[in-house]
Amino acid sequence: MSWLLGRNRPQPQQDAALAGGSDDEDKNADPQLSKAERKAMEAYRFDSSALERAADAARTLERSRHAREALELSKLQELTRQQEYQTKIKEYEAHVEQAKVEQKRIDHEERRKTLVEETKQQQQRAQYQDQLSRRRYEDQLTQQQRVQEENLRKQEESVARQEAMRRQTIEHEIEMKEKNRLKLLEHEMRVKAKVDRENRDINLEQIRLKAQEHRTTVLESIKTAGTVIGAGFDAMLTDWDKVLTAAGGLSLLALGVYAARGATGVTSRYIESRIGKPTLVGETSRFALLDALKHPIRYIKRLTSKPTDALQGVVLNPKLEERLRDVAIATKNTRINRGLYRNILMHGPPGTGKTMFAKKLAEHSGMDYAIMTGGDVAPMGKEAVTGIHKVFDWSQTSRRGLLLFVDEADAFLRKRSSEHISEDLRAALNAFLYRTSEQNEKFMLVLASNTPEQFDYAINDRLDEMVEFTLPGLEERERLLRLYFDKYVLKPAAEGARRFKLETFDYGATCSKMAIVCEGMSGREISKLGVSWQAAVYASENGVLTEKMVLDRAHSAAAQHKQKMAWLSDHERLDHKSVTGGKIE
User: Which residues form a coiled coil (predicted)?
Assistant: First the structure.
């Protein structure tokens, strides 16, 4: 409607006139009025020119044939402006709402920050109060400790003074007793000296008589001995048969003494090698005369027994079993062909079957075995060298060949360069190296150790083969559990042992479950688990072994194994890596 009111039509002349009129009015205005008053008066003036222009435009529009369209167009424009205005109002309201939401978010964030700050301040205040209370408590403890130390010091000083007084009293008493004793002794000596002076003549006469009697006795003895010896020499010199008889008797006596000493030494060594056994040997399958007399049935069974499989009752990794079977076959053929035996080192965690295989190897090869422990060498001291020589001398006398198994060999075969060992132990190591410098056809040396890295280099040089015994895997554990379940549970139950019954359940599936539970356990620990099953039966009320009892014992054994591993210190883990299967947890 701006064109209707004449706002868009240019009227320069009128504007100029109006401007000129305005200027004239300003000039004709009352000069006494201020500028603000003049502007207020101008605000209430009415300009009729605009109304006149609007009237002219209305008349022109009424005469125009497009008046209705123009009016509709004006209405549409006005509606459009109103809609735009409404849209702007809604946008403004949306902005206002958004501003309110943002303000609420800001207020919430401020409140959260305020709460966080208050919480932080409270925490700091609580920490400060806690520090103050701790400091006060520490000060109290320090004060109490000082008081206690002061009291203790005073008590110690009091005790020390009392002890000093007691010591002075005792010393004074001792001194007085000593003075009294000296005075008494002096008095006694004076009395004795006085008596001796008074009895001097009598004492001298007694001494003179005793000396004269002793001299007479000695002279008579000398005369008698001289007469007898002279008569004997005179008889011998005049009779040569007696001289020869005496010389022969003395010669035979000396020969008899020497022969008896030699025969005694030879007999003792023979008895020690044939009848007894050396001190260092703890267990042996070699029967001596005394053993045969004590256990004749066992001796006869052994003579009639046949060689057994070296791996019978031994459950190991398949690759390790194959290697040990080759060792057993080679050892047996070596004994048959009288060849030189090879020295073997068996190393690995304890309880993995090293000693058991050594015994089985000796039985399979038809040899005797002897077991000695390295820990028995050090306590012997200087006698260790002699003991080692006796062991090897005794080993040489075996007719079947001897498998000498040294368990815990690292106890005395340690490195001489880095380990601090005693001179006696060093001498024992040197003696062992001397006796094993060359391979032998009489005995086979088998060393066992959990820490083979501690061996002296010279010991490693004497080893022909090294075999590592590892902890059993899942399949080996299941085989071991089945073996010991049959040995300690099924066989006693089948034999009808007293108070030993077995509940019916899937034994194979139970052994498979326990194999998973017993991860990391050695063969010895699994065998002890079999003994614990028997103990569970004997401890039960009805003497029946159930599946739950079997699994409970397995879980208990696994927990105990983990506890033992946890007890190992870092130094033990590094020093005994084989205990954990080479893993440092």
Answer: 82-109
Distance of CA 559 to the CA centre of its chain: 16
What CA–CA distance (Å, rounded) separates 415 from 307? 38
Is there a domain that residue 449 lies in?
Answer: yes
Strand pairing class (465-468; 344-347): parallel
Q: Quote the tokens at residue 278.
A: 């050396």
Q: Does position 177 have pLDDT exceeding 90, yes or no?
A: no
521 DSSP assignment:
-
Q: Are 358 and 268 in contact (CB under 8 A)?
A: no
In the listed set 250, 275, 300, which residue is the last one of a domain according to the structure?
275
> Amino acid letter at 268?
S
Residue 472 DSSP code? P
Count of other CB atoms within 10 angstroms of residue 324: 23
The candidate with the shortest Cα–Cα distance to 510, out of 471, 478, 557, is 478
In degrees and rounded to multiples of 5, residue 280 shows phi and psi of -70, -20
| Gap between the Cα atoms of 388 and 370, Å rounded | 13
The answer to whether residue 464 sits within a structural domain is yes
CB 307 within 8 A of CB 332: yes
Cα end-to-end distance, the chain, whole Å = 94
Pairing of strands 544-545, 443-449: unpaired
Give tens-digit pLDDT for 38-83: 666 665 565 677 777 777 777 776 777 676 777 788 788 888 888 9
Indicate the DSSP class of residue 578.
G
Instruction: State how far the Cα of 244 lies from the Cα of 251, in Å rounded to an integer.
Output: 11
My answer on whether 510 and 559 are in the same domain is yes
Range of the domain at 510: 475-574
CB contact burial 340-362 (16+ within 10 A = b; e otherwise): ebbbbbbbbbbbbbbbbbbbbbb
**429 and 504 fall within a common domain:** no
Question: Phi and psi at residue 283, in whole multiples of 5°?
Answer: -140, 140
- Whether 508 and 482 have beta carbons less than 8 Å apart is answered as yes
User: pLDDT of 84-93, one tens digit each?
Assistant: 888 999 988 8
Beta bridge partners of 455: 414
| Strand bridging mode 368-373 / 281-284 | antiparallel
Q: 314 with 363: CB under 8 angstroms?
A: no
Say how far apart CA 329 and CA 444 lie, in whole Å. 14
Q: Are residues 570 and 484 located together in one domain of the fold?
A: yes
CA distance 342 to 443: 9
Cα–Cα distance between 326 and 320 in angstroms, integer? 10
CB distance 500 to 544 below 8 Å? no
Q: What is the tens place of the pLDDT at every residue in 493-542?
A: 887 766 778 888 888 899 999 999 999 899 899 999 989 998 888 888 88
Both 299 and 435 in one domain: the answer is yes
- Phi/psi of residue 7, nearest 5 degrees: -80, -25
Label residue 347 by pLDDT band (50, 70, 90): very high
If one counts the domains in the chain, the total is: 3
Between CA 370 and CA 443 the distance in angstroms is: 10
Burial 374-396 (b: 16+ CB within 10 A, else e): bebbeebeeebbebbebbbebbe
Residue 364, in any domain of the structure: yes
Domain presence at residue 36: no
**Quick one: 463 and 481 in the same domain?**
no
